[in-house]
Design brief:
heterodimer, A: mainly alpha, B: four-stranded antiparallel beta sheet, 7 helices, rod-shaped
Amino acid sequence: MFHVSFRYIFGIPPLILVLLPVTSSNCHLKDKEGKGYENVIMISIDELEKMLDIDSNCLKKELNFFRRHSCADKKEAAFLNRAAYKLEQFVKMNITTDFELHLLKVSQATFKLINCTKEESISKETKKNDRCFLKTLIQKIKTCWNKILRGQ
Amino acid sequence: MTILGTAFAIVFYLLYTVSGESGYAPNGDLEDAESDTDYSFSCYAQLEVDRSQHSLTCAFDDPDINSTNLELEICKSLVGVECMKFSKLQEEKYFIKTKKFLLLGESKICVKLGEDNLACKQVEISHLVKPEAPFDIKVIYRARANDFEVTFNTSHLQKKYVKHLIHDVAYHQEKDGNNWTHMSTSNTRLTLPLRKLRSGAKYEIKVRSIPDGEYYKGFWSEWSPSSHFKIPDANSAEEILTISITCFFCVVLLVILSCALWKKRIKPIVWPSLPDHKKTLEQLCKKPEKNLNVSFNPEHFLEFQIHKVNDIQSRDEVESFLQDTLSPQLEESDKQGYAGSGQGPNWPSQIPVTTSEAFKGELPFGCPAGNISTCEVSMHPSFWSPDCREGARSGSHMYQGLLLSPGTAGSTVVPPFPLQSGILTLNTGVQGQPILTSLRQNQEEAYVTMSNFYKNQ
């Protein structure tokens, strides 16, 4: 009896504490009003969309990355943080200087607006010339931000 | 003792260290001078000033600073780079133009002397925005609304970042010095009610802008170029009203007069009707006077002289004949008349005759057209048309020139319906009586008669 109580008191709570970070997000949004997004990030996203000329067929492709990471409820910040890291992989695609500039603006501005306690692990590098993936990624980032702002 | 010595050594050592911390150094004079200088500076940013490039301009607050070797550097919140250096302009200003401002988060601007940072400042570029000055101010008076519509333009309408501004519109009377009235608006259009302005005065107006403060903040732009406008005079408005009412009534009066006088006066001048010879003839052939003696008994006409037409010569010009030749002809005939007075009663006289177009081809006297050699022209009423006979019998006033009046017995008469332009050779039977006056009268009467074709309408 005494041993059983010890197990419940000293065994389960630590287990819960260990498991909590797995279930909860380690990122939170600093800019809850979305002003940084509307006045800086959104402008660069619009410019990137113009330069990439989003193709509707491209967006329908369900890529692995988006199956594993999505803008789910309470995970918006984490998704945006992960997406920002992914964007930086596309720098130096040799499109134009302005293109790289806007890519970096989106990613660096996202890092400033989102605070994550845990560093993002470097995922598998995507092919640099995968424009379809880039187009989809930008579109997903925009959709996720709009979802955050609508939820305000 | 040892302990005391140790204590003093520690104290001196501490003193030395502390004074070093406070800035004292072997070459302390220079460092003191450097640390006393105020390197404070101010900056402002202009976004998308050159297409998509932004600019950042800084200047020291103290204009007396010797900035010969001083440089400015900005770090953090830059895209793709860690730090950027300013360029030095004239007037002791530092300037940088780039697309690499993140516009989010803080940046650090430092005054550098070589590698040393003399002064640093944390700034947010999005809070240092100075918009471009507005331009193209227009002021339009709206009489119906009784106000002035003010519109202006700003380059920020086409920009992507700083789109939302607050505009400060300032206006004053030109003679009023610096007493400006301010109005705030977020649009590029506003109205000034007339009641707030003095009638007849001249006003000056200008605009400046500032970011709305939602995200971008900063400073007022430069003032726009001034525009001038004048308030319409209340008296002039009354005068205009009076003049318009007067003009209206004049127009109404004119319309009424036109309607009233249309038939009698205006229409005959504007749209004269063509003479109708039948109507004219009817008018000419008026009922004779009551005391006209109508008889077929030749003995009643013994006092009237009958002039036989012996010869008619055709002439081309009709009217000029009357004017040009009548006078010399009349003079001639006068002479002839006078001369003829001594020659006998049967001396024929040649009288120029004018013709009427209406009777060009027709000879009312029954004579064939053209050259009439022996055509007896008789003043007898039987030669007239049946319609006219009645009138002729009664002695129409139109034929006074034709019919011999007692006062002009023996004078020659020109028929009212001459055959053609020509000379009627008439046997006047005049015994020395002057025919000039009567001819002239008859010619005048002929003129009168001819013109009556139009008058009688």
